[in-house]
Every structure is written in C-alpha cells, then in structure tokens.
Amino acid sequence: MFSLMGLFVKVAGRHLPSQEIVLIRSVVTLFYSYLLLRWTRVSWRGQRTGLLLLRGVVGFLSLSCLYFALTRLPLADTLVLQHTSPVFTTLLAALLLQEPIGRRELTGILLSLGGVVLVARPGFLFGSHAAGLDPLGVGAALGAAIFSAGAYVLVRELRRTEHPLTIVFYFPLVSTLGSLPFALPSAVWPSPLDWLVVVGGVGLSAQIAQVWMTRGLAEEQAGRAVAMNYLQVVFGVLWGLLFFREMPAPLSLLGMGLIFLGTWLVARART
User: Which residues form a coiled coil (predicted)?
Assistant: First the structure.
C-alpha cells in the first residue's frame, strides 16, 4: 500500500506542491481515523498524550521529507532510500527499547549504507560525469528514513498502553496542524483529477497502510517488522516502469540489492 501511495504522490506532485499534498492527505486520513475511532468506540485521547504528540511530530517530519523526495527522485530510488529505515530503527530500538544488537545487525547496517552510496552516486565519489541523483532529494529520502525509524520505535513503546487506532489518529492530527503554515502560502487549487488522486489515492492508501503497519509493529520486533516493508520497493520499481518509464541505473539496482541484503540480515538476526 505504501508503494501505491508513492505512485499517487508522484502523479499529484506534477501539479501540486509537496506540502499541499501532505495537508490534503492528512485531512483525509484524519477524517478516516476519526470514523474508525467512533465505529470501534475507542477513545482518541490515549493515556500518554505527550508521547502520542511526539509520534505525530516525527511522523509529520518523515512524511514531509518523503513527499518532497518523491517530487525530485525516481519512485523506486526514493522508496529504496526511505526503506533504509530498518538500519536506524535497529539502532534506536537498541538505545531506547534495550533491544539487543549484534554483529549480524552491524554487518547489515554497513551493507545498507554501501547500498545507499551506490543508489545516490554522489559526484565527489563517482565524478561529475556520473548520473547521480538530486542531492536534495537524496537528503530528503534519508531524512524520511531517519524520522520513520523514530516513529516506528515510538509506536513500539506506545503499543504497551495505547490502542493502535489511537496511535494512528495522532499522526494525521499533528500533520494537519503542522503542514498548514507551509502549504497555504503556495497553495494551488487542485483540478478534479488532482482531487481524485490525492483524496481517493493518496489518502485512502495511506490510511490502510498506516493501520496495517501500526498493528504489525505491535506484534513484531522493530527491525524485523520494518524490514518486511522492503517489498514496497519491488512494487515501486514496477510502478516506475509502467507509469513513468523510470528504469533504475545498474548501480542503483546493485545498491538496492545491498540494502535488501542488509535489512534482511538485520531482520534475520532479530528472529
């Protein structure tokens, strides 16, 4: 579902600023989340409001970075860079949740970082003749990965006391409030097709994916649960080929393989 969300964001990003997409998506998912809370009769307040708000802030920062990256990078490259989050999740889980970390995880981290270099192909390493990715886009995608890792670890902690739907609710709540001052000054009125893509595509797919992810993280160790999301990259390559004629460079494919192997090692070590 996250790969579908990325596809719809990339389509909408041709006409709309990324923060406007964040705002519309957040309003839509806030509405969906509220309906789910009412339907299941779960309280939106929760027991640890401060931690719930922090999860919302970190999620908003990750979302903003991801949507900005999707407007500047190919779909598959954006998703593979964002999916380095298992590396950061493992480190944060070890620091904050006292989950053990060993040699295999460290090996996976190094492999993943090597994969990032091959995907990004920075000019200072590969020369100015290399067709590297936009540095701002790469930085945003990695920022999304780091903030995602923080969000995942916070979800792992919050699930001890909070209902998954309550955790999900605070994400669009904070994102709606946070995106308003950035989206309104440069807002563009969406066309009917843009409304359909953002509301029906981005909003709905994001809500379904967020609920599934939150439930999954409540039942698995952090590194393993996030590593399973790597399947989204496979679909990202497919959508990029079908809709945008984006064929990953050979070095990008090699980098994707290293990142996949690295995240697999992290997941394997935590089973």
Answer: none
